[in-house]
Amino acid sequence: MTATLLTPKSDDQAPVTPPALPPTPGTSVEVVPGVRWIRMPLPIALDHINLWAIEDGDGWTLVDTGINCPDSMAIWDRIATHDLAGRPVKRLIVTHMHADHAGLAGWLANRFACPLWMADAEYADAQVMVSGNRDRRQVRDFYHRAGWQATEIERYFRRRAVLGSYYCPLPQRYNRMADGDHFLINGRHWRVIAGGGHSAEHACLHCPDLDIFISGDVVLPKISSNVSVEPEAPEADPLGQWFATLDRIRADVPDSVMVLPSHGRCFRGLHDRIATLEHDQREVLARLATALDAPTRPDALFDILFSRPISRTDISLMTLATGETLALLNHLAARGLVARRDGADGVSRFQRIVPECEACCP
Ligand SMILES: [Zn+2]
Fold first, then answer.
1. Please, are residues 212 and 32 in contact by the beta-carbon 8 Å criterion?
2. Which of 29, 86, 199, 280 is the most buried (most CB within 10 A)?
3. Fold of the domain spanning 2-135+163-278
4. Distance 85 CA to ligand 1 centre (A)
5. pTM of the shown model
6. 178-213 pLDDT, tens digit each
7. Ligand 1 mean position to 99 CA, how many Å?
8. Which of these ranges, 54-68, 160-174, 184-198, has the smallest mean pLDDT?
9. Can you tell me the mean pLDDT for 333-337?
10. Could you give the CA distance from residue 135 to residue 124 in angstroms, rounded to a whole number?
11. What is the CA(301)–ligand 1 centre distance, in A?
């Protein structure tokens, strides 16, 4: 059954060209018959998210939600009436826990009286964001070890409160979605490919019949996914998980698919894009390893790793830069290439491990 599902589209079916232009914010266009591309504006630096509506019998299956704000709700109301022709929403699938993807899950499930499908880890992590229920001492310790000042950590807590407001309460009941599951939507199978790296259990969706791959935030056309270490799992290796997820996608999803990403435009060339993402990330890892001749604080590495300056007053940027720097460092540490030591000041230092023969033989 799996082999049949993964059979690439036959040669006699001409591939559908991705739409030349994205829908204007707040509207939708058809990507292939039965799949609509909705563009929802976002009030943050990344100014939009792509959402998907898949025809499902006499109604629709929706993928992802936009953030919790009155503008998003008004857009959904208009799209439901016009673009979705007032037909019922039968199911809501959320790829992962970030606010632009899950923020309106509770509101949409209530508005359309439809079930929510989410991976367990994503639902649990989204609940933490909604409740704001984090161990503050653990968070403080995490950022202090990364080199942050106390004032920066306080700014971080204020920023988290704002991020929490981007979610409305999640439904108390949800349906579990896991790697390898299949949805039957309009008589077609959509396979769930779930993996870690960007978030704990991010779900992508592959429909072999339509030759479509909803990649979420894992494979994006212009930017690389944020892969960060979080305070709850300070020793984790999310970059290793992200590489493994990309390996899985390359093995399981044919290069012929049209990729439907959460940001940017639909595109073809999945395998090339994965190769570029991996290559770029490995290049950064190599650059980092050579820079760690002496014990170095994580926050002292931003200039080496990032093309733009990381302002210490921009707490969102600081959070991303710190999480990504630690992801790179932890990945090198997991491979025995760097060692971490916490100083008397409570701040971590990382240093390259010099192989014994290299250390004693000049
Ligand atoms: Zn995301």
1. yes
2. 199
3. Metallo-beta-lactamase; Chain A (3.60.15)
4. 29
5. 0.91
6. 999 999 999 999 999 999 999 999 999 999 999 999
7. 8
8. 160-174
9. 96
10. 15
11. 24
